[in-house]
Amino acid sequence: MAKCPARKKDGTPCTLDATHPDAKCWAHSSYTDEARRRGKVKGGKAKPGLARLAAIDRSLEDIASGVLAGTTDRARAAIAIQALNARIRLAATEVQVRSQTEVVATFEELERRLQEHRDPADPDHGSTYR
Ligand SMILES: [Zn+2]
User: Fold this and answer.
1) Neighbours of ion ligand 1 (CB under 5 A)
2) Whose CA is closest to 60, among 8, 116, 15?
3) DSSP 5-28
């Protein structure tokens, strides 16, 4: 597959495959502008685990491109991929912990609202699970 003709921020040529209809990679294609913008906004805000996964994905893509092009040492690539695998597990755990924390917080909020709306004439209502 042809390489993306764009240049990276540091001025060096992009090493990714031109996978999009405008003959550019996902990082430079105008077809992915909107998704990249959304990803940055979300990643910068509340989803650091997901932003990390996206960064790891880019690193893996760069390593794979480098190995296939013969510009990246295979032994170094293997070690780098092992490190990236550990980071993937870490990010996945972070996402898992975050979502569990959100579920608990939502549950506590629902319980609090239920307490607020409890009918004084029926004190048992809402506190017993039948
Ligand atoms: Zn590119």
Assistant:
1) 4, 6, 14, 16, 25, 27-28
2) 15
3) --B-TTSSBP-SB--STTS--TTT
> How far is ligand 1, taken at its centre, from the CA of residue 128, in Å?
58
Long-range contact set of residues 28-37: C-beta below 8 Å, sequence gap at least 24:
28/4
What is the torsion angle, in degrees rounded to the nearest 10, for the CA atoms of residue 45, residue 86, residue 16 and residue 35? -20
pTM recorded for the entire structure: 0.45
Residue 111, both tokens: 């319980």
Which single residue is written with the structure tokens 């809402």? 126
Distance 23 CA to ligand 1 centre (A): 9
pLDDT tens profile 46-97:
566 677 888 899 999 999 999 999 999 999 999 999 999 999 898 888 888 9
Token match 């031109």: residue?
18
